[in-house]
Specification:
Elements lengths: L2 E4 L4 E4 L2 H11 L24 H24 L7 H18 L4 H11 L6 H10 L16
Antiparallel strand pairs: 1-2
Helix pairs in contact: 3-4, 4-5
Length: 147
């Protein structure tokens, strides 16, 4: 689809965006044109080229870095936002619901009954452990009061 660019002096047919950008650059002063900085990418690791030993060392280094970052965050009073901490936080919420007997506690007990359907006493045992404080929230120290 060709479009026509109409100017008071020149009428040229353009067939692509590149042509239109060229025409715009001609109309603008060269001092005004600002080039976008190019994004620098990290050099690729080349996992396919690694030997099994190199790959194992590479993965071990990445895991050690991840664990160090997580420890720094935890020492600073923050947690990483990942699947493990999310599951722990949701479990804590369920424990607190069971402890207080608040809205949703029956839904938690019902779900426990479905998960442990072959163990009929499991939901009541969990509720009793929560009430006796034998089962406590794991991340409660990281919970902050919202003001």
């Amino acid at each position: 689809m060709a479009t026509t660019v109409i100017s008071s002096e020149i009428e040229e047919e353009t067939t692509s965006v590149r042509d239109e950008l060229g025409l715009l650059r001609e109309l603008l002063d060269e001092d005004v044109i600002v080039e976008r900085p190019k994004k620098s990418r990290k050099p690729s690791v080349g996992i396919d080229d690694m030997t099994p030993e190199e790959y194992k060392a590479y993965k071990a280094r990445l895991q050690a870095e991840r664990r160090a970052r997580n420890k720094e965050q935890e020492a600073a009073g923050s947690l990483p936002f990942d699947a493990d901490t999310t599951r722990d936080a949701l479990a804590d919420a369920a424990i607190m619901l069971l402890f207080t007997g608040g809205p949703g506690a029956t839904a938690v007990l019902k779900y426990l009954g479905q998960v442990f359907s072959d163990k009929p006493g499991a939901p009541l045992t969990v509720a009793a452990r929560v009430k006796s404080r034998a089962l406590n929230p794991k991340l409660i120290k990281f919970a902050r009061k919202s003001s």
